[in-house]
Design a protein that fits this description.
The structure is a homodimer. The first copy, chain A, is an alpha/beta fold. Chain A has 13 helices and 12 strands. The first copy, chain A, has 3 domains: about 35 residues, no CATH class; about 130 residues, Response regulator (Rossmann fold, 3-Layer(aba) Sandwich), CATH 3.40.50; about 140 residues, 3-Layer(aba) Sandwich (Rossmann fold). In chain A, α1 packs across α2, α1 packs across α3 and α11 crosses α12. Chain A is elongated, with a radius of gyration of 26 Å. In chain A, about 50% of the residues are buried. Chain A binds a DNA duplex (16 and 16 nucleotides) through α2 and α4.
Chain lengths: ~350, ~350
DNA sequence: CTGAAAGCGCTTACAG
DNA sequence: CTGAAAGCGCTTACAG
């Protein structure tokens, strides 16, 4: 590729590089005539401004980064992630920002990545996915006042920008839904215990159970990862108990798929034997057999809003709320309700 | 954030900026002592090299871009994409490259994005997803000899680097599998006709049908998008025909989910009434009811290999094959086989 | 309305 | 082993 610089254009147009630069940035005090001529020459010679050089002087990169949580490998297996990306990209593209995807394989690696991207001034802001309890990273970014938006929540840094759901309430609603269907033995298939989302949903589950005066057996609570695999395992464990739950709240639809598959395989019927509600409402939940009841957490909105807040912050606009809660709603499907007429049974 | 530059370090260490630069890049002819001292001071002052400045002089960015096909919005709805990204990121991260995600909303926008990223020298190479027939973009990149890898194939530029499946053979295999199960009326639910993957799979389908002496009715071929929605629509159309197919080859698992759901809803049984094979083998395919037979196209490998080829190309290493074909294999599940004992029927 | 000059933060022959 | 100088491609006060 031939590299055409601003100097080449200047020479060809018989003006100074300063003038070319002003034409490129549509500076107001440039004569129409000069502007037209320079633009024509840029076109002819195939000029494209060097983004790096521009960044260096403007000290801005027009780029954001999404930092994938450590086990990025796993993350992508959860389909929830794609929807989140859609939301983030929709807004950032519109606002003229490029998006960088940074995967970190180890904590050490994560530190290096942050150093490179953030302190190396490669990006203007960063979106953090999946908040862990006591995440040192959040503290580090916060201390340096680097524009950051967290999807989730952080206990240590209450003033950090964040977008989240009310996960306590969401889990409460899911559990309550099973309770009013008459279930008394309700289990909870959770995610990794170091994720705030796991803690919050657990809390909502317990709260609903307590309020209803139902007891929570420790063996009805199983932790795992966000993989169908985990759902399968959790299910086989619970179904081996002398006193089995009759309803399950499951941390994620993919895990829910695993649970459902396992139950079917063991000959149980959903919802007759076991009722099921999970979270995230991924596109395939409604296509499961039976369709899975799920808490829609507004995944796309979550991403869109995160991008919006981050860009506002970068552009030093006033931000009215440091913490935005995206509303959730329970989508009731056949996996949790007997009374809905089964179409093919 | 306080900005510490190489000059600050130089001053504090009592050496020249050149020396600091050499320490940073582990230049061999720097005394152990100087190196140690400078490193200590960098640590103390919190020095991080400015990536933009480095790029400007080195003319390399250590960054790749993935250009999302135009309707990126849709793409993310297909779960296949996440797996592809996993593969791409796994390798690129390992090789020390950052990844940029570029979404283009319109053709115009796509051009601007390319100009900015490629000609603005913001990235060192680019991975193109989803090859369309006669894609002008491929030609443009190829003409400028910009390091590019295409996931898919391009008729116009046979020498461009590409990673692909043998989609003709894959569809042949899928169709043949139905044929040896005794099906004679087999339909094909395709994707958008401007994608090479749609064309190739269609060809394989026709080929298998022809070889077996089976006729292909035009109404048994339906085109749509890669969404469950499309599967649903295709299915209702075909099931309204006087002569319905008894087997279906479906371009994508997500579409397959839609087909399956629709069939179940209409009271058909799979595979007894209709047998089904689709492509991509996404994680949830095996959890469908019944589990969906699918051609595993090695999605992760596809991404991994693309990244590998691109980085080799950038680093000017010898590339033995311009075009790499990732092998596929048919995963037979209950959706296409009567004889497998149904666990719960 | 336009140009000359300085500078963004780094690297790298060229000398020594 | 180390430094001074030039330069990567751009922008932006400062003059005029």
């Amino acid at each position: 590729m031939a590299v055409v610089t601003i100097k080449d254009i200047a020479k060809a147009a018989g003006v100074s590089p300063s003038t070319v630069s002003r034409v490129v940035s549509n500076h107001p005090r440039i004569s129409k005539e000069t502007s037209r001529k320079v633009k024509r020459i840029m076109e002819e010679m195939g000029y494209h401004p060097n983004v790096m050089a521009k960044s260096l002087v403007s000290k801005t990169t027009q780029t954001l980064a999404i930092l994938l949580p450590r086990p990025a490998e796993e993350l992508f297996k959860d389909f929830f992630f794609g929807e989140l990306m859609r939301g983030i990209l929709a807004h950032s593209t519109r606002a003229g920002y490029d998006m960088m995807l940074a995967a970190a394989t180890s904590p050490q690696d994560e530190d290096d990545t942050i150093s490179r991207l953030v302190f190396g001034r490669r990006v203007d802001g960063i979106i953090l996915l999946s908040s862990r309890v006591d995440d040192p990273l959040i503290e580090r970014l916060d201390k340096h006042k680097f524009p950051t938006v967290l999807i989730g929540r952080s206990e240590g840094q209450p003033h950090i920008l964040s977008v989240d759901n009310d996960n306590v309430k969401a889990a409460y609603d899911a559990t309550h839904h099973l309770i009013i269907q008459g279930h008394e033995r309700i289990g909870f298939v959770s995610g990794l215990p170091n994720l705030t989302v796991s803690l919050d949903r657990m809390e909502g589950y317990r709260k609903a159970m307590n309020e209803a005066g139902l007891s929570v057996r420790p063996e009805w609570i199983v932790e795992g990862e966000f993989l169908q695999h985990s759902g399968y395992r959790a299910m086989s464990f619970m179904m081996s108990l002398p006193e089995k739950p009759s309803g399950l709240v499951v941390i994620d639809d993919v895990v829910g798929f695993g649970v459902l598959h396992g139950l079917t395989e063991l000959g149980y019927t959903v919802p007759e034997d076991i009722s099921l509600v999970s979270f995230n409402n991924i596109a395939l939940s409604e296509l499961a057999t039976p369709p899975i009841s799920s808490i829609d957490i507004g995944t796309y909105q979550l991403g869109y809003t995160a991008s919006q807040m981050l860009i506002r912050r970068i552009q030093a606009e006033t931000i009215h709320q440091n913490r935005v809660i995206i509303p959730h709603r329970l989508i009731v499907r056949d996996s949790s309700v007997h009374s809905i007429s089964k179409r093919n049974s």
